[in-house]
Specification:
- The chain is of the alpha/beta class.
- Helix 3 crosses helix 4.
- Strand 2, helix 3 and strand 3 form a beta-alpha-beta unit.
- It has two domains: 95 residues, TIM Barrel; 72 residues, no CATH class.
- It has eight helices and seven strands.
- A seven-stranded parallel β-sheet has the order 1-2-3-4-5-6-7.
Length: 198
């Protein structure tokens, strides 16, 4: 998949929140894979963000998912690990804000790969030019980022969209109503963009 579908519905994984009663990593991964199987075809992009999972286990799961997802038009991205993304036949890699330069990752990327990056400010959005998409947040409070945390809000989201030509997706506490609020902010007069992932 060489191009991100816009608008884009992106699912970011967290196996521990999905199955808090699981006693082993294997049980968490099995529950996650079943859940992601159900999401394939319902979302445009799955970002597998499972930093502590052993490389082989992560690669095996991602490989199985990538095959099934490709048939249904859902892209599978691996967080931070370009080596695993390539070995698993995933659609690309999602880099953290402090991750390696995109040009360096592009040099080892498979043909047609998507490369995304997390950004947390208008300046970071403005500086990002080589990525296929950006994820901006945290926009609203979540369990992991409560009200007292540094939240971006819809106004900063709109400013970030104005600052970049790269497709930008919002993350953090976004439900159906908030997705519409984000979309309205992005499509407000003056932004000139119609690229926000819901």
């Amino acid at each position: 998949m060489s191009r991100l579908r816009i608008p884009c519905l992106c699912l970011v994984t967290d196996r521990r929140r999905l199955s808090p009663d699981a006693r082993t990593t294997r049980a968490e991964i099995d529950a996650l894979e079943r859940w992601l199987d159900d999401a394939i075809g319902r979302v445009d992009l799955i970002q597998i963000r499972e930093r502590e999972v052993e490389a082989r286990t992560l690669c095996e799961m991602a490989s199985r998912l990538a095959v099934r997802a490709r048939e249904r038009g859902t892209a599978v991205m691996i967080n931070d690990r370009a080596d695993i993304a390539r070995a698993a036949g995933a659609d690309g890699v999602h880099l953290g804000g402090d991750g390696p330069p995109t040009a360096r990752v592009r040099a080892i990327a498979a043909a047609g790969w998507l490369i995304g990056r997390s950004v947390h400010s208008t300046d970071e959005a403005r500086a990002a030019r080589a990525e296929d998409y950006l994820i901006f947040g945290t926009v609203f409070s979540t369990d992991s980022k409560p009200v007292g945390a540094l939240l971006q809000g819809v106004d900063r989201l709109s400013a970030a969209v104005e600052a970049t030509a790269v497709p930008l997706l919002a993350i953090g506490g976004i439900d159906a109503d908030r997705a519409h609020a984000c979309r309205r902010a992005v499509l407000a007069p003056g932004t000139g963009q119609e690229r926000l992932g819901d």
